[in-house]
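Sample intake sheet
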Amino acid sequence: MFKVKIYGAGSIGNHLAQASRSMGWDVYLCDIDDKALTRTKSQIYPARYGKWDEAIHLLNVKDAPRDIFDLIIIGTSPDHHVKLALDALTEKPKAILVEKPFCTPDLVDMEKFHRLANEGGIKVFVGYDHVVGLAAQKVGELIAQRKRAEFQSLDVEFREHWAGIFSAHSWLTGPADTYLGYWQRGGGASGEHSHAINLWQHFAHLIGAGRITEVSAMLNYVQDKKVDYDRLCCLNLRTEDGFSGRVVQDVITMPPRKWGRIQAGNGYIELTIGFQPGTDAIFWQQDAGAKNEALIKKTRPDDFITELKHIEKTLQTGDPSPIALERGLDTMLVVAAAHKSTKEKRTVIIDYQKGYTGKALK
């Protein structure tokens, strides 16, 4: 039986534990805080999924077994991701899944982890689950029907007030209680909603435009004695072949807007995540012809189940993955570039030849 160890018994840890159990996997859910483990068993898991699953091994990290796992999942706050992921490499699992964002914007040890993971031959994925979802797959099919020269622009927005996050974490009173209130720890709009950057990158790859090489950003920070985070992150982007577009992420918009649009000749492809409760939507038109739509039903647990099915299939086939480590690290370079661009009031160039370090940002 496939064995999974999950670090972090918060919201994401519970989602991934339930998704793993739906796959029939043997799950070890671990945390350094015994209160978090109790809350998982008595509150979070039964409230979401009906009842606690007694098959889940619920353990303090210090008591968790080692060296027996096929997949290790890092579902803690971003400022602990790299340390735990480096330790996970020593257990030599088949794969590691690190929740997004991969790390903090200082990019410390990001290049080191990339090198060691490659040297060890361990597959690593980063949890940008939207790019492997059914809606993104449909957009990919529509992109494949057009020629590169047709594509003119790409906009993606993840604009969502984070009240929903705190309603799902009743033990938190606000951003100051968690990494979310500190951009240096991987929080704020730039980190928490970096799904938008990653989705933009994904579609740019499908178009054939290459990686992002220029970032011009305007971030709006909230800074006081309690918090230091960006509530609004606006990015103008350009890729290796000159393709341009825009990303907006925020933690203030109500109701939320998770949306993307690709302009292609006289037509377009448009994606809305959460178009209706439990439904994503794709709208498209080609050459001023008929307008089309596809509605995709899903639940929040479906996002994580689809992600784990993708990982399982990728391990079997060896096919390239849009949530592979390098894609997640590319996203972190853009996040770091956004803060640098705002601070220095200029466009920042990403030089991938310099590796996954701050030296890549010029």
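Comment: The radius of gyration is 20 Å. The domain at 130-360 is CATH 3.30.360.10 (Dihydrodipicolinate Reductase; domain 2).
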